[in-house]
Amino acid sequence: MTAITLLMVCVPEGMPLAVSIALAFSVDRMKEDGLLLKELGALETAGSLQTIFTGKTGTLTQADFKVENVFYGTQTAKPLSADHPDISEAALPTIKDLIIMNTSARMEINDKTNEFVPRGNPIEVAFLNFLTLNEENVQTRLSMKAENSENKLFIPFDPARRRMTVAYTIDGYPDTVRLVVKGASDIILPLCTHVLDEENNQVPFVQDDNDYLSLEQL
Known about the structure:
Number of domains: 2
Structural class: alpha+beta
Largest sheet: 3 strands, antiparallel
CATH architecture of the largest domain: 3-Layer(aba) Sandwich
Oligomer: single chain
Helix content: 25-40%
CATH class of the largest domain: Alpha Beta
C-alpha cells in the first residue's frame, strides 16, 4: 500500500519531466537518421510519421539560392557560363535597375570578411548576388536608390497576390513612373502585353513556343 501511495504522488509531479526526457532522447535518435526537429512538441504531435511533404522554400535546406538562367527577348543567358551567351550589354542596365528598385533585401557588414553581403529573403539575396557577380556595387546602388528616384508605390509580396509591386520615378525623367512587378511566372506572364528584346526595345509579347517565353517553358 505504501509503494502504491508513493507512486500516485510522484507521477503527476514528475510526468512533464519524464515526457521531456523521453522526447529529447527520441529527437536525438532521429538525428542519426538525418531528421532534425526544431521543436520537441512536434514529435509528440506528429506521432508516427509516414510521409513528409516539403516545398522549395529552403525550410529543410540551407536556403542558398542562385540565379541559374536569365530569359530576355528570345535569348537565354546562363550567368558566368561559357555554354550560353552573355547578357546583352543593352539589356543588362535595365535588368540591374529592376532588381535594385524592387527588392526588400539589404546589405550588411560580414564580421568575418568585413565586406558587405546581402541579407534578407533568400530569393532576394540571390538576385543581389547575381548583381555582384556582374560587377555591380550593390551597396552603392541601394544607397543611391532613394536619392535618384522617388518611390510612388510599394506593395510587399502577398501570398494571395503572389507578387510584389513597386512604382518609382526614373532618374532624369521625373514625370515618368516605372511600375515593376515581381512574382510567380504563371501570374505575371498573363498580365504582360510587351517584352524587352535583346536590344532593350519594347516589342509585343506573344505567348507562343515559337516566339517568346511561354508558360510551358518555365
